[in-house]
Every structure is written in structure tokens, then in C-alpha cells.
Amino acid sequence: MTRRLIVTADDFGLSMEVNEAVEEAHRKGILTSTSLMTAGPAAEDAIRRAKRLPDLGVGLHLALYGAPAQAPADAIPYLVTPAGDLDGRSTATGVAMTLSSAVRRQVHREVEAQFRAYRLSGLPIGHLDGHWHCHQHPWILGIAIEVGKPLGLRTMRIPYEPVRPSVLAAKGEGWARRIAHAASHWSLAAHMRRRLKVNGMASNDWFFGKNDAGHVTPGLLQQMIAALPEGVSEIGLHPATGPWSGDHAPPPDWQASGELAALIDPDTRAACEANGVRLCRFDDLV
């Protein structure tokens, strides 16, 4: 069995700094995929860049919390803050979805609005992933499949980071946290696999970067590549050319420019070649 690797930059369209990094990492480095935040302040610029990068796989970065909203605020009152952005209380929103059909209808409206905006971009939909991995939530997953499948959605990220290669890549750093995270998310990943299989949709087998978001150095990325298990893995990153300000600025401790440096480091591509890892996109899975 071969080892294939999708390398994705999330938050495309959130800022010019992210957009510039996505283009640079694809042209100069190993980035094969990105996911568009349709309501992001720099979404129009992201769409223009994607159209001049035909080999870059692009998908929908579905956002239900902690991001700009696509639907009008009066259509999704529970989901938004007074400023009109999607609320960052992910746990509260998740519980409310489970308990309230009214909240689920609002989620459906926001998901529909984001898919509609993506279609209007004219870009093919290569895959779906989620801001803060929101699409793991069983209700969000079901709504995303219901809305996206008729529009051509055929692949989706399963954000499950296996323990052994994660610990090996990090050289033991945070081993307890990595084990706890895998244990607490195993059932969600299993549910996702079942739902996607029933709907004839493809996915990655493994995901890396979840435990190290915003802190992936060139060395760590190269260690991840060396530790990849057999099958299709995805490494998800958040590169940017630098920090930016505003309501959706990155956490102050994130090293987004360091993640860009990791993607374009010549030793990173050499690590893929040395370990027999073949780069691919979600489109290549179907």
C-alpha cells in the first residue's frame, strides 16, 4: 500500500496574509489543497488567486462558529453575535443543535448560504472541511451531506490524528494530550466514516496538524512526513505571510509565518521524496 499525502491550508479568504501564503506555498512548496471561507473578508481575492492556480485543489471551509457569517443575521439569530459574526461558543452551539430543531434550521440556512456562495465563485468543489473541525458534529455532518451532495460534493476531511505517528513526529512532546484527543474523537471519526461510506463519498484515512495547529515548524512537518502511516493522510496547516488584526485575527501565540516557511522549505519536499510519499489532492480520491 502506498502513502499518499494531501497538504491543505485552511482559512483561505480570511485575510490577505493567508491568501498570499496559500499562493506562495503552492507555487514554491508542497501545498496541494486549500479550503475557502466564503464569508471571509478576503474571499474575492482568494477566488481570483485560485482561478490562476489550476493545480491547487480547493474546497469549502465550512464555518459555524468563530468566523464571519454568510447568511443574514436575522435568518440565524441564535448563531450570531450582536456584530453579526458566528458565535465562538462552539460547545454551546453544539448542544443547542442537538436539543433544538429551531437551531438546526438556522444551521441549515447558514450551510446552504455557504454552499450557494461557493457555487457562485465558479470554483469546482474539491472537498469539504470545517472551521474548528465543526463538521465532525453529527448534525452538522448530516446537513453538510444533505446540502452538498446534490451540488457535487464527493470528498470530505476526517480530522482524526492517530496516536503513534503523532507522538513519533512530535518526539514524545504532548503525548498524554495526543492520546486523550484521539480517544475522545475516535467515535466521531468512526461515525463520519460510516456516513460518508453510505453516501458514496471519499475521505482521507488520517489527519495530522490538529494537535499542533499554529505551531508546525519545518522540522515538525518533516517529522510528520517521515512518520506517515500507509494510506491517504492529510496534513492541515494555517500558513500566513504575517499576523493581521481584527475580529478574526489568529491567536497571538500562533506562528503562521513559520508554517509557511515549513511548506516552502526545500527539505520538506525532499522528505516526501525520501519517504516515498506521493503528494495528491482530494480530487484524486474519486
Automatic annotation (TrEMBL):
Its cofactor is Mg(2+). Keywords: Carbohydrate metabolism, Hydrolase, Magnesium, Metal-binding. GO terms for biological process: carbohydrate metabolic process. The keyword Membrane does not apply. The gene is hpnK. It comes from Sphingomonas changbaiensis NBRC 104936. One of its GO terms (molecular function) is deacetylase activity. Pfam families: YdjC. Transmembrane segments: none annotated. This is Hopanoid biosynthesis associated protein.
